[in-house]
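This protein record is not my work; I was only asked to verify it. Where you disagree with what is written, explain briefly why. This is what I was given:
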Amino acid sequence: MQSVSAEPPVNIGDRRELFIEHGLIDQITGDAELRLQKPVPREVVFKFDQPWEGSSSGYHTIIQDDGLYRLYFRGSHIIVSEGKLNTGSHKPYYCYAESKDGIHWTRPELGIVEFKGSKKNNIILEGKGCHNFAPFLDENPDCKADAKFKALGGLQGEGGLFAFQSADGIHWKLMQEAPVITKGAFDSQNLAFWDSEQKQYRTYYRVFTAGITDSKTWKPEGDRAIQTATSPDFIKWDHVADLVYEDSPSEELYTNQVKPYFRAPHFRIGFPARYIERGWSESMKALPDYERRKLRASSVERYGTAISEGLVMASRDGVHFKRWNEAFLRPGIERPGTWQYGHQFIAENVVQTKSTFEGAPDELSIYAAEDYWHGKGGSLRRYSMRLDGFSSLHASMKGGELLTVPLTFTGKELSLNFSTSAAGSLFVEIQTAAGEPVPGFTFKDCDELFGDTVDRTVTWDKKSDVSSLAGKPVRLKFRLKDADLFSYQFRD
C-alpha cells in the first residue's frame, strides 16, 4: 500500500536534488536502492618534490576561481628512522600552485617568503597557522575586496584557530591577533565557508570525544570527531554542535572536508578520512612497504598500523548527516605509497573539469594524497566522476521504483541526470500529494528515457511543459530498470 505523508510539502523551487540521502524519499520498492558510486582514478597531477615541500606535504585545498584552479598545501617533510620521526628538516610552510585545467600545475615564483636565502619559491605563508591553513573564496555578497579570500589555521599550542584574509589568495594577513576559536583539538584540517543558504559563515573542526585538549593540557581520549559552529562575521563564533549521523557507528574521522556542493548548495557534502588502526596481522604484513611500515611503527605504533580512506557524507542543515558507511575512496590496488596512514586524504573542494573524452560533458574532479611519509615527496592524484555522481538511485534489470514526499516546485520542465544500459529504461510519473497520478503525467503518458546524459528533459506524450503543476503539492515517482538516476531539477 502506498504511503501518504501528512507532512506539509517541501518547497524545492528550482533546486537540483541528489540521491545522496533520504530527505525527500517516501519509499523505495522493487529491486532498487540508493547506491554509492566510486570515483575513477586518473593521473598524478602534482608531486611535492621541492626542497621546501616534502613527504608530509598535506592538508590540500583546491579552489576553482573562474578560469583558474588554485592549489594550497602544507610544505613539510618527515624523515623516518629507527625509533624516530624527524620533522626538523625544515619548518612547515604553506605553498601555492595554479592550473588552467585542474591537471597541469605550475609553481609561480612569488617572492614572499625566504627559504635558505632565496625567495624564488611558491611559499605564501610561514609561522602561525602553517600546520593546517585552510583557505576559501568568500561568496558572501557583502564581503570586502581586501577579504575576498579567508582562511582558518592554527593549533592548540598556538592558542587555537586564527582568522586570515587576503585580496588575491596569495598575500595573507591576520584579521586579528587573537584566535577566533579556542575550544577544540584542531590537529587536522579545519574548514570554513560562507553558507549562502543560511546567510552565515560555518566552520567544521577537529575535536575528541573525551579527554582534555586545550592550550595547557593535551590529553585527548575517545575518537577523533567533528564539531561545527557558525558566525555572522568570521570573528565571533557560536552555535557549537557535534555532528549527528543518522545510521553510522562511532569511527575515527581524521578530516571532514565539508563544503556546499556548488551545483546544489543546499547540500553540505563532506569527504572525511576514515582512520583505522588494524594492528599487526598476516594481511598487514602483506601490504606494500612492510619494512618501511615497521620503521614508522618503531617511533609510534599507529604510524605503521593505521590505514586511511575517503568517505562521503551529506547534510541539508549542516549538523545532521547521512554518512555512507562503505568507503567512497578505497585505498585501491596495492602499490608503493598506498594502504597507509595519510593515504587517500581527500583535498578540500570538489571542482568541475573538462572530460577526457572528446564531446563528453564536464565532470567532477577530486584530489587525494599518495606517498604520504614516503620517499622524498608525496603526490596528489586526481579522481573523476560524472556531475552529481556521488551516489544514485539504482535499479537492476528486475526494476524498481522510488516515490518522493510531497513537493512544490517552480519551473516549466523536469531535467534528469541518468544512465541506463542499452536495454534499460526510466519513466517518471507526477502524482498528487495524495498519491493519485495526475492525468497527462502518468507512467503511461511518459516517453521512455534511455541513454547516458547529465541533462535530459522528461516528456509526456512528447510534451515537456509542467508549469500547470508549479506551486501545487505533487509527488514524483521514478520507475527504473537497469539504470541509475543521479539528480533531478525543475527549471524554466
Summary: Residues 426 and 480 are 5 Å apart (CA to CA). The chain is about 5% helix and 45% strand. The longest helix spans residues 290-297. The chain has a mean pLDDT of 96.
